[in-house]
Amino acid sequence: MPDETWRSARERILQGGRPTYHRRLQQEGKSFVRDRLAKLFGRGGIEWEDGLYAEAHRPDLPADAVVTGVGRLDAGGRAVAFMANDSTVKAGSMGPKSIEKILRIQDTAERMRVPLLYLVDSAGARIDDQVRSFPGRQHGGRIFYRQVQLSGVIPQVAVLFGPSPAGSAYIPAFSDLVIMVDKNASAYLGSPRMAAMAIGEHVTAEDMGGARMHCRVSGLGDVLAENEDHALSLVRQYLSYLPAHFQELPPLGDPVPPAAGPSVGNIVPPGREPFDVHALIAALVDADSFYEVKALFAPELVTGFARLDGRVIGIVANQPVVKGGTLFVDSADKGARFIWLANAFNVPLLFLADVPGFMIGSAVERQGIIRHGAKMIAAVSEATVPKVAVMVRKCYGAGLYAMAGPAFGSDAVLALPGAEVAVMGPEAAVNAVYYRDIEAIADAEARAQFVQEQRDAYRRDIDVLRLASELVVDDIVAPDDLRRALVGRFAGYSGKRRDWPAKHNAVHPV
């Protein structure tokens, strides 16, 4: 090809689709894909791009609507592989060459052992070319097959800047973390127009598969971004907690004291008065280091990454101000997913337990609370990273199992003074054991006195000192000494061996 020909082709391809589609992006508050990549990689820049000339003989398909390559998040910083749809070209739809490019960058990321970003803004498969892109061994389905193979090997992050419909919806589903841009991102197996035609349902795109719906209701979205710039900053922040691949440890940071605020002793009230566990987390971890995952989904359980004296940890914490911290179907799924993520990439786990147990009743039984609870317990059991559980106030029933109680391979179970660990709380226990005796006492005052006496006796039986004497808890820690105790524990466990029985795979509850 003459020099002028390939140079002019290159210039044309770098411009993306027609000007009218660029103007539409601006109207939607979205960036052109190459501008988006320039913002993401900043001074680090794109190291290289592969497949730039895909479908170069077709003026209407510059780069075949996807940009793939490797960039550095900061000058001289860590390498990250990426694929990014160009929505100015055929609405970012995927044809044979774009699929080939995506498969190749997946292979590249695996060989280089670097994180892989899926920057999604796509109309999905190119239906008018489906025979060459949908059903075959190296066609679209192979992308998801490779995502599953890469899962737990390298971090995979999906950022939805626009639509991710039909088969493309599985790209975020198979990613470790999904960031969705509010008002622009969407994901659904069938569009609102398709739903109206096929099942007679009339629904808006936002209600069908918008960012807020997925972050609040379905759980597909992990983090809701305010805009594109916010989404890109969330990517950088998230990757700062993770190694490049599963055989590395998370990067160490400089130790930073907690943010100024109330002490642990002043945050955690006695008894059952609700408190916001975010305040407890802030009092324990390095200032401004908590990165919450699925904050809007099943908020009765809080999950996220943080730094403790510079060391990365994952946090699983019951939230007393939401449903009393009781575990439900969605919160069990949320906990399991986060525990698997942390364990995959060598992130130690801190459990902050203040849980009445799993929800009971016919509604949750029909939803499969036993299966979903077992899923979280399975994740706790499988986690071989250092695990420290803190009994903050109460830990009842199978909540003890889900929050890494002593039977589940925890390296330490600590307790704050006044903490209780039991099959159930005093009220429920006394009613269960003494129901007939209580009913037999006719005098109301005598009945109340009997009940109170039995509750007091029950509390003495599950007193934290009694639990420590039976080796249920390893140490009782003064509230304001908790951070120091955790720093020492996680530093000491940093060289822990991680053995697990050899097998093909576990048969997980679903």
Protein model, in words:
With 510 residues, the protein is of the alpha/beta class. Strand 10 (291-293) and strand 11 (301-308) form a beta hairpin. The chain has helices spanning 3-14, 19-27, 33-41, 96-112, 141-150, 170-173, 192-199, 205-209, 211-218, 228-239, 264-267, 277-284, 329-344, 362-367, 369-382, 399-402, 426-440, 444-461, 464-469, 482-492, and strands at residues 46-50, 66-72, 79-85, 116-120, 156-160, 163-165, 177-181, 186-188, 223-225, 291-293, 301-308, 311-318, 349-355, 387-396, 412-415, 420-422, 475-476. The radius of gyration is 26 Å and the shape is elongated. Helix 17 packs antiparallel against helix 18. The longest helix has 18 residues, at 444-461. It is built from 20 helices and 17 strands. Strands 10, 11, 12, 13, 14, 15, 16 and 17 form an eight-stranded mixed beta sheet that branches. A seven-stranded mixed beta sheet has the order 1-2-3-4-5-7-9, sandwiched between helices. A two-stranded parallel ribbon has the order 6-8.
β-strand number: 17
Mean pLDDT: 93
User: What count of helical segments does DSSP give?
Assistant: 20
Largest sheet: 8 strands, mixed
User: From the alpha-carbon coordinates, what is the Rg to the nearest angstrom?
Assistant: 26 Å
Portion in strands = 15-25%
Proportion in helices: 25-40%
Q: What low-confidence regions span 5 or more consecutive residues with pLDDT below 50?
A: none
Which outline best applies?
Answer: elongated
Structural class: alpha/beta
Distance between the termini: 56 Å
